[in-house]
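[SOLVED] Need 3D model of a three-part complex

Original post:
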Amino acid sequence: MTPSDPNAVLQLGGAFTIERAAELKGLLLQQIMENRPERLDLRGITELDTAGLQLLLSVKRCWPRLSLVEPSPAVSQVVDLLRLADFID
Amino acid sequence: MSKTILVVDDSASMRQMIGLTLKGAGYSVIEATDGKDALGKLDGRKINLIVSDVNMPNMDGIAFVQAAKQVAGYRFTPVIMLTTEGSEDKKQQGKAAGVRAWMVKPFQPAMLLDAVSKLVI
Amino acid sequence: MDIQAVRNVLLEEARELLATYEHTLLDIEAQGLDGERINAIFRAAHTLKGSSGMFNLQRVVSFTHLLESLLVRVRSGEQPMGGALISLLLRCGDYLSRLFDKVAEGLDDEDPDPAQRAELIAALEDYLGSVQALKPLAGVPAGSEAQDWLIGIHCHPELFHHGLDPLPFIQYLVGMGELLELALDRELIPSLEDIDPETCYFKVDLLLRTTASREALTQALEFIQEDCDISLEPLEAIVAEAPEAPEASEPAPVESAAPASAPAAPAASGERAARRDEQSMIKVDARKLDQLIDAVGELVTRSARCRTLSLTSARETVETFVEEVDGFIEQLRDRALKLRMAPINEVFQRFPRVVRDVARDLGKDVELQIRGAETELDKTLIDKLADPLMHIVRNALDHGIEPVEARQAAGKPARGRLLLNAYHESGSVVIEVSDDGRGLNAAKIRARAIERGLIGAETLLDEQGVFAMIFEAGFSTAEQVTDLSGRGVGMDVVRRSIEAMRGTLEIQSTLGQGTCFRIRLPLTLSIIDGFQVVVGEAHFVIPLEQVVECLELPANASARQVMSLRGTPLSYVRLAELFELPRDPAARECLVVVQHGQQRTGIVVDRFAGELQAVIKPLNPMLRNVPGLGGSTILGDGRVALILDINSLLATPRRVEHA
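Solution:
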C-alpha cells in the first residue's frame, strides 16, 4: 500500500448506473484502498441513477472525510432533486 | 443527451404513432417489428427504455422481456408493456417477468409521454 | 392536535356504516323487515349524521337528517317499507358514498351531483310530506385547494430488477406541485464494502404542496407501488392554519373553510417544521401490523412447542437456548404490540367540539375536562371506542347534566362539569365519563324496567344491577325526547360494543350529585399472558392478570358453593359443571381465585398447568355463542385450549341446562 498522498484525486467518469453498478463497486473499492484519495472528482460522470448514487453515498459512509468535488450536470441534477447539497464539497 | 427508446410492435401504424409521439418529445427512437427483431437490436447500444406490445409473431413481448433481462447491459432497462383490455393472464405473466408499467391500448399520446416520464428522467 | 387522524377515522367509519346500511337494505329486500334490520340502517344514518356534524360536513348532515327522519317513521310503522322505498334508500346511500369520496379528497364543500341530490331530497320529502323542509345550504362550492402531502417511499430491495428507478417518479411528483421538503434516509445505505450494488436501499420522505387529488398522486406512483411501501398522508388543509377568525354567530368551520372566507396563506417555514414534528408519529398500516403480530404469534406458539420438546428430551443446552429465545420473543412481542398502541387522545379530541355544540343545542352550560389523554391503548380499540363513548357523553349531556335553572335550584354551580378520564390499571385501560348532574334514580329505573318487562316485580337486584338496566335494549327514561340521544339509539348498543371488545362497563351514581360511567378495556386484543388449567381432558386459559391466587380446594367445601378464604367468604364455581365436562369425580380439586371488577370468585379445576403466553385465535363457530369463552389458543403440544372470558363467565349466575 502506498502512503496516502494529500493531493490524491480519483477521477470518476462515464455512466454511474445500475447496469455497471457491480463493476463500479469493485473499481471504487480497489482504487480507494490502493490510492487513498482525498477527493473524488465527479466531473466526468455522464449519467447517475439511484444505484450510482447509492455507491457514492456508500463511499461517503466508509470514508466520511473523502470529499466529492466538481459535480457534473448529471450529478447536480440528482443532488438538487434529492436536496443533497451537503453531500458535495 | 437525448434518451433512446426501443419501440417493439408488429403493427406499423402503432410503431409510427408511438415513434412520432416520442420523437416529438425529444427522444431518439429505434423500432423493431417483433420480439426477435428487438432482441437483435440489443447489441450494446444504449437503450433507456423499451416500449413493447405483448401479442406479436415470432417472439411475443413477454418472451422478449424475459430474454432481454439475460442480456448484459439491458438487465435493468425499464419496460412499458402495451396490452388490450381483457388480457389479464398476459398481464400476470408479464408481472412475473418483472414488468411493472402497463398501458392499455388505445391511449392518448400524452398518456404515453406521461408514463415515459415516470421511468426516465 | 391531529385533525387528520380523526378525519380518517370518520371516513373509515362512514364507509363501514354505508356498507352496513346497504347490505342491510338488501337483506330487508330479500328476507323482509324486522326490528333488528331497521334499527341497523337507522343507526347507520344516525351515526353518520352525528359524526359528520362534528366536522361541519353540512351537506352530509342535512341529507342524513331527512333520511333519518324517514327511517324513524319506518321504524315506528307509520311508513311501510316497500320496493320503491328500498330503491330510494339505496340510492341515498350511493349518493352519500360519493359525498364522502369528496370529503376524502378534501373537497368538503363540493357536491358530487347536485341534480341527484335535489332529486333524492324531493323524493325523501315526498315521503315525509314536506314537513321537514330543508334550509338552503350556505356557502359556495370550493375549487380544489393546494394541500400539503407527506409522501413516504420506501423501495423494496429488488426494485431495480423490475426496470425501475425511484428518481424519475420523484421528479414526476415534483412536477405536480411545490416540493417543500425532502429527506433521504442515508442511514439505510451500507458502506461500500457491504453494499449490494444491485439492491435498492432507497427510502425518502417528501412534503409536497399540490392541488392534485389523492387519486392523482396514487396514479403517479402506480408503476412502483408494488415495489415500494408508499404512504400518502395529507397534512391539515392549509387554510386551517390561518389564524382563527373571531367567533361569529355562525360556528366557524374547523376543518374546511370556504376559500372566499379564508385565503390560503403560505405557511411560514417554521410552522411547517413544527407540523413535520407532529407527524413524527408514523402511521402504520394496520394490516402490516397484524401480519407482524401474526408472525410473532406463530413464534410464540413454536417456542412453546420447542419448550415441550426440550423438556421431554431433557437436554440442558436446548433448554438454555429455548430460554434465550423466549426472552427474545417476549421482547419482540412487547415491541410489536406497542406499535399498535396509540394515545386515547385520538378519540378524546373529538369531544371539546361535540360537548360545546351539544350543550349549546340543549341550552346547557357545560365545561369539559379531559385527563389522561396520553394514555395508550390498542389502535383498534380506540377506533371502536369512539361510538360508545360518543353515546355515553351525549347521554350525560342530555340526561345527566341539568338545565341551568334546575342546577341553581338544587344549589349547584350553574355550569355543569363533564370529565373524560383515562388511566391504566392492572393490565387494563380504564376510561371514565363522569358528570356532576342529577345522578341516576335507582327507584325510577327499577320501576321503568318492570314496566318495560325487563325484570319481574319481585326480582332482587343490587344497585349495580338496577343501573345496568339502562343498558338493556328497549330501555329509555328520557322524559324529554331531544334529537340527540332521545331517538332511541340506545345504551344497549354501548354495552354490546364494549363487550365485543372484551371490556366491562360499570356505573357509579349518587342521586343529585352525578354519575360516572367506567369502561374497562384490555390493553390489547392479540396476545395475553395466561394461566393454564385442566379439567378432565380439557385445557383452559385464564387471563393471568385476573388470577389472584391458586390453592387446593378444602375437602369439606364441596357441598355449598361458598368457602371461607382467610375469614372472608368466597363463592366459587366448578368449570366442569359450567361446561358439563366429564371428569373423574374422585380426582382432587384445585381453586383459582380470580378478580373481576371489584369482586373475587373461585374457579374450581382439576389441576394447574402453569403460565403461558396465549395467542388469541377466534373461536370455532360452534362455540362462538357460548358465554364465558373469549377465544382459543394453540398449546405447545399442538392441542387447543379455550380462553376463558372471566367477566362473562361470572356475569350471570348460570344454570346448567341440558339441550
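Edit: The first strand of chain B starts at residue 4 and ends at 8.
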